[in-house]
Amino acid sequence: MSLFFIVALPFLGALLPGLMNSAGRAATAGVTFTVSLAAFVGLLTNLPAVLAGNVVMARVDWMPLLGLNFSLMLDGLGFFFALLILGIGLLIITYARHYLSRDDNMGQFFTYLLLFQGAMVGIVMSDNILLLLVFWELTSLSSFLLIGYWKHLPEGRQGARMALTVTGMGGLAMIGGMLMLGQIVGSYDLSVILQNRELIQADPLYVPALVLILLGAFTKSAQFPFHFWLPHAMAAPTPVSAYLHSATMVKAGIFLMARMWPVLSGTPEWFVIVTTAGLITMVLGAVIALFKHDLKALLAFSTVSHLGLITMLLGTGTAFGAMAAVFHILNHATFKAALFMSAGIIDHEAHTRDIRRLGGLRKLMPLTFVIASLAALSMAGIPLLNGFLSKEMMLEEAYHTVLFGSPLLVPVLATVGSLFSAAYCFRLIGHVFFGPVRDDYPAKPHDPNTGLWLPPALLVVLVVAIGVAPFLAEPFVKLVTASVLGDAAAVPTAYFKIWHGLVPALYMSLIAIAGGLLMLALFKPALFVWDKAPRPEAKVIFEAIVEAVAKLARAVIHASHNGAFSRYAAIALVVMVAVGYHAWSTGTVGPDTRTVQYAPPVFIAAWLMLATATAGLVILHRNRLLSLILIGIVGLMVSIGFVFFSAPDLAMTQFTVEVVTIILLLLALNFLPNTTPVESTVLRRVRDTGVAVLGGLATFGLSFHYLLRDAVDTPISEFHLANSYKGGGGTNVVNVILVDFRGFDTYGEIIVLGIAALLIYAMTETLLDGPVRARLLNRKPDQARSGNKHPMMMVVLTRVIMPVVLMVGFYIFLRGHNEPGGGFIAGLIVSIAVVMQYMASGFGWASARLRYPYHGVIGAGVLIAGLTGIGSWFFGKPFLTSDFTYVRIPPFEKFELATAALFDLGVFLAVVGAVMLSLESFSRLARLAGYHDSDEPMDIDPLRDDTKAAGLAAAEKKGV
Amino acid sequence: MEFLVASAIGILTAGGIYLTLRLRTFPVILGVSLLTYAVNVFLFASGRLTVGAPPILRDGVSTYTDPLPQALVLTAIVISFGMTAVVVMIGLGAFLGSDDDHVDDQPQTDEDRSEDAS
């Protein structure tokens, strides 16, 4: 099966459990199992190729320019890990089916689990380190979801947060390291990177890259000093602990170190950092584990300890160390997952995991006893079980390792670690299964059903099989070791044997086992000393650090981000001007190439009006109504400017937009205060004036500069002018650009406009539903209301003018392609015609006669424009390719039919809908605020019965 | 003429900036509108100033104004209406919800705190 399928299957399959949720628990688990099984079988189909020593590759270019490609590879190491992930995954799915209670949402659980599985398979099969990073972060996220699966438990939430923080930070560091590595080699492909050992180790960036990558690996694999998150992650359901936090995810860091081993290892830096961290973690984890009373906590710290062991083996940088590490990864995954599942069984049946409350389970749960004891003895390093073999190899390697110039340091510490490791294993067996049967268990323990004991039992079969017949595992382990080592070293020839003769490792092993038994005998006094001894609590320290960082962030944010908008605006403006000035003063300024054109008096007059209106607006802005008039003048002058400078389309657009904007602002002013009070200090106004003058001078300087010079390069406008008629079939080049050359832009713009209108509508809805509603209903108008709000003259006038305006709009729309006009302008004109009806006869009257809701009009516009664009697909052309033809229907003259007109229709409808929806939303607010609207077109109507009108007027008076 | 257009852009910008830095929503909205004019004219002027040569193709005419900035500014004008409407709505909603049309988050004064306490 293609590697793509193996990686994609869990991700695609993750959709299924959620869907199957209602079909029952068995079906949900069944579908998850099937998906995993399919991926597992797919993996096995690649076994022959891997056994033959080939590297299976699959590659699709994703973002080749960034060096990010979806390229996968499968070699021995990747196969080994994928086998662990998918194989143990199958066992875990079976186990979880029986472990989760009826109250748990099983679909959600299995969806998370499959997401995790896919991400994990992705990590071990990635050939591109950027792709690997993506999967790496995905495992952090899915692990977060799984740890916090029991959302109601605070420990679950805290543990999930802590795990995400620690592994997420590590992931960030690793991104940095990986990017450096890619920079050094010039490629982000692992297969290329792994060939460049000398180049990488000689580079000055080697040490920073190494430290950053190791940070990622250490956080993920819970190495000291980042070991503390793993025990807290045990708040997860036990299947998750068994899967993620013993067999797979925590091994991702180990995987990465093994993957990078050929290029990163072998230097003093690698040796010191990795070996030291591994040693400390191994001893520390083992010591803490011994004194934990919670079964899962004990196993968690023992996992930490064993991860340290593997890390240390990788750190030594010898081929034998790497082989021992690979072998121990395999062994640890088998016995530790079995132990976690056993702990889950005990928890499930006895309703407690506290070792102090257990004991004597040997007789009550014989099956569980056998499974857990075999696994624990393997962990302790007892011969004939697989843990013994790899531990022996570890001790052998430790015996030959010289750290910090001392030949004794590593062997002694390794023995101490093994000693405590043996001690907690013996304690687990002794205190949980031996001893007298008690009568105070929270629930009566008994052996579970097959679904729960079979998965760990299968693993224990492996434990024993490898332990008795190590030659079974040897070829496979050596194959994996070969792919770890790459070209950097040859696979050691040493055979896997139970009996090596009287070698130092055997004595160290004996010391550890004897010491472990002694430790168990002395457990009570040792525990007393442990409880008395002061020791730092990792969670408290972690939370203190998080709190301190949050405090620092708050201090920085509050100092720089105090909620004063005007301050941000001032700072941003000054910075922009400064940056612009810098560019100006460092760039080259060419000589003037254009001459100043003569300004006719009429233009000077317009300029004067614009300048005066702007100045007046600034000075008189506290009178809000007046300022609206002044800004109207400014807008009018800008429109006239467009006319003057040969831009008729712009002038028409500006002019019509001006009308609707002023109406909109008037509607808003209905509610807002009519004046702006004097609040700012004189100093502040002086400061603002300074900033304003600075900004004004800057834009003036820039504009004047380029108005006197030609463009540095030929503008593309020539192309538009040349092709407008030939290619677009229109003589109004501006319109052809809008609906044809840059039709896709326009399409985006009408969508944005529609979204803006919908946003306004949504905000109005929210306001009308919330506490504002009551406020509006109780609002007293601050000014006297007109007695005749809908005057007859205005009503009559708008009714008469309506068809005329619509006709003008239609005309403007049709001529748009060849003469000034088009969908935008026509839309605005038609909107104004409709708004006039609202103004004349009120909201109630007008909306009662509204046939099409404006949302629909917006949608229809966008849809028509989009369908026009899609239409070109049917002719094998790209989106929005336009076409036109000339037809002649007697008695009319020859005229043009263009698809662009259809697109323009979409623009037209979207503009009408958006403008109307915005204005309508505002008037809905006004309607609520006590402006009684009659359903009649006008207040005083000679045709109507006067008594009714009088009654209406009386009601109005009462209301006010 | 170039001087006048450039200075108009400068004046509009200066006025817009000053009003944008005010403390109440309404003048800020007016300021943003002025800035919009300034930006639109600025973009339009990037096609350089041409009098009496509209971008409508005619037989026998060889000089045209630059149509591209015009097309870009046309949509910018319409979009800026949408933006103004949204900003006005936000300002209005904030005012109706809190009876306060300040732009800045008012820092709590000692007076407020004592009021809260009592």
From TrEMBL, chain A:
Residues 66-110 form the NADH-Ubiquinone oxidoreductase (complex I) chain 5 N-terminal domain. Keywords: Antiport, Cell membrane, Ion transport, Membrane, Transmembrane, Transmembrane helix, Transport. One of its GO terms (cellular component) is plasma membrane. Coiled coil: none annotated. The chain crosses the membrane at residues 38-60, 72-96, 129-150, 162-185, 205-230, 242-264, 270-291, 298-320, 326-346, 367-388, 408-430, 451-473, 505-523, 564-584, 596-618, 625-645, 651-669, 690-708, 750-772, 793-814, 820-840, 852-875, 895-919. It comes from the Bacteria. InterPro entries: CPA3_Na-H_Antiporter_A, MnhB, MrpA_C/MbhD, MrpA_C/MbhE, ND/Mrp_TM, Proton_antipo_N. It is a multi-pass membrane protein. One of its GO terms (biological process) is monoatomic ion transport. Residues 610-673 form the MrpA C-terminal/MbhD domain. GO terms for molecular function: antiporter activity. It is found in: Cell membrane; Membrane. Residues 126-401 form the NADH:quinone oxidoreductase/Mrp antiporter transmembrane domain. Residues 683-763 form the MrpA C-terminal/MbhE domain. Residues 794-916 form the Na+/H+ antiporter MnhB subunit-related protein domain. NCBIfam families: PRK12648.1 (NF009288). NDH-1 shuttles electrons from NADH, via FMN and iron-sulfur (Fe-S) centers, to quinones in the respiratory chain. The immediate electron acceptor for the enzyme in this species is believed to be ubiquinone. Couples the redox reaction to proton translocation (for every two electrons transferred, four hydrogen ions are translocated across the cytoplasmic membrane), and thus conserves the redox energy in a proton gradient. This is Monovalent cation/H+ antiporter subunit A.
UniProtKB/TrEMBL annotation, chain B:
Residues 101-118 have a biased composition (Acidic residues). It is found in: Cell membrane. The chain crosses the membrane at residues 26-51, 72-96. It is a multi-pass membrane protein. Keywords: Cell membrane, Membrane, Transmembrane, Transmembrane helix, Ubiquinone. InterPro entries: CPA3_antiporter_subunitC, NUOK/Mnh_C1-like. Pfam families: Oxidored_q2. Belongs to the CPA3 antiporters (TC 2.A.63) subunit C family. This is NADH-ubiquinone oxidoreductase subunit 4L.
